[in-house]
């Protein structure tokens, strides 16, 4: 190779061309960074007024041009907003960012201070009036969301809704329904006990009248308390 001047000349020319192209690209990028600022940010999926307001505030701190803007930093900024579950950020030539937000879908009020979404995530937004209320240990949020969905679907077959859920530190469950009935589920065999309640509710109420309290913690039956009388055993 070193004995072939023509080949060496060709290689040198290629190296020079690559160097010039690289220098040209670097110069063009620096030139473009000063002249291609982000002029428009399109935010999709901001369904709540709180999110739209916070999104506008987040734009004020946006730094960098089309080439230098830190997309990960922008994404993290949007995901720090209370209603936002996740955010996707992409650039659109020559001066636009598109931000696609996925917001939390609230399922219930959580411990009177926040909200629980349908996926079992707690997010720091003041609970809306009218949502079911859940009081439970914070570490149980995911389990509670799954159980809540299971119980709500089972009760819907009887046109009943959950008004509130209480889960003790020992993981004992108590439900209050929208008709005022309190359902004591306890700690064990929750699904089995709920199925037993659903399968016998109409029959027991037809015989015993309107119930105020049902205790399902018995192995082969349950106790009830009527709205206007003492306790009976079913």
Itemize the secondary structure elements and their pairings.
Layout: H1 5-35, E1 40-44, H2 49-60, H3 71-79, E2 84-92, E3 96-103, E4 106-110, E5 114-117, E6 122-123, E7 133-135, H4 141-156, E8 162-167, E9 173-177, E10 182-186, H5 190-208, E11 211-215, E12 223-226, E13 231-233
Parallel strand pairs: 1-3, 4-7, 7-8, 10-11
Antiparallel strand pairs: 2-3, 4-5, 5-6, 8-9, 9-10, 11-12, 12-13
Helix pairs in contact: 4-5
Task: Note down, in words, how this protein is organized.
This protein has 234 residues and is α/β, with parallel strands linked by helices. It has 2 domains: 5-103, membrane protein fhac (Ubiquitin-like (UB roll)), CATH 3.10.20.310; 106-233, Cell division protein FtsQ/DivIB (Rossmann fold, 3-Layer(aba) Sandwich). The chain is 37% helix and 27% strand. It has 5 helices and 13 strands. The protein has helices at residues 5-35, 49-60, 71-79, 141-156, 190-208, and strands spanning 40-44, 84-92, 96-103, 106-110, 114-117, 122-123, 133-135, 162-167, 173-177, 182-186, 211-215, 223-226, 231-233. It has a 10-stranded mixed sheet with strand order 6-5-4-7-8-9-10-11-12-13, covered by helices on one side. A hairpin with a 4-residue loop joins β5 and β6. α4 packs parallel to α5. The protein starts with a helix and ends with a strand. Residues 230-234 have low confidence and may be disordered.
């Amino acid at each position: 190779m070193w004995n072939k001047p023509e080949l060496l000349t060709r290689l040198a020319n290629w190296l020079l061309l690559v160097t010039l192209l690289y220098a040209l690209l670097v110069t063009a990028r620096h030139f473009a960074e000063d002249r291609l600022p982000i002029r428009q940010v399109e935010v999709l999926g901001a369904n709540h007024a709180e999110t739209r307001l916070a999104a506008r505030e987040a734009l004020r701190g946006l730094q960098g041009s089309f080439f230098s803007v830190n997309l990960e930093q922008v994404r993290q900024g949007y995901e720090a907003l209370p209603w936002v579950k996740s955010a996707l950020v992409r650039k659109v030539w020559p001066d636009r960012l598109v931000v696609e937000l996925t917001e939390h879908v609230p399922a219930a009020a959580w411990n009177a201070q926040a909200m629980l979404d349908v996926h079992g995530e707690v997010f720091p937004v003041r609970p809306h009036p009218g949502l079911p209320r859940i009081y439970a240990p914070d570490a149980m949020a995911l389990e509670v969301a799954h159980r809540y969905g299971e119980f709500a679907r089972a009760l819907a077959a009887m046109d009943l809704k959950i008004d509130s859920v209480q889960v003790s530190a020992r993981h004992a469950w108590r439900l209050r329904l929208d008709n005022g009935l309190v359902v004591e589920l306890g700690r064990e065999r929750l699904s089995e006990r709920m199925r037993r309640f659903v399968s016998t509710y109409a029959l027991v109420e037809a015989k015993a009248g309107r119930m105020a309290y049902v205790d399902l913690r018995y192995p082969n039956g349950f106790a009830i308390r009527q709205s206007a009388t003492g306790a009976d055993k079913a």
